[in-house]
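Entry for the shared binder. Reason: the reviewer on the internal report wants the predicted structure included alongside the sequence.
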Amino acid sequence: MNQLDELDKKVVRALQGDFPLVAEPYKVLAEQVGISEELFLERVKALSEEKKIRKMGAVLRHREVGFSSNVLVAWEVDPARLDEVAKKMAESPSVSHCYDRNTAPDWPYNLYTMVHGHSREECEAIVAGLAKETGVENRAMLYTKHEWKKVSMKYFQE
């Protein structure tokens, strides 16, 4: 695998910080790196195509925006319906994460969703609605007891 050159390291450094909440965020990031927005976007695209960047995403600090309750819901979904059910659940504005996992002999759950609400009761109602909408009833609900600090990996800090 090719090593990253200095320009690409600067691009990665810019991407791993807080994303500017402005109309043209990539322009701001490009300015931080000292290049044009066009070149910045070309490098991001190339890094992605070369699989040197796998994903970029937002981190929801749910408590800061008023969601005081959240629950990880493990669902037992018929494998033949997994994609259909996951798509439907992921479309819910109350679901921030939705992914499949392998089952175990004493753990039949293969689909996981993270549901956020303003109260435990609201989370219960959201989950009940998802169950009704998808026809999937068997689930385990694991409420958050303590939120640990959310920290993203930082590369090229020198």
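Summary line for the report: The mean pLDDT is 88.
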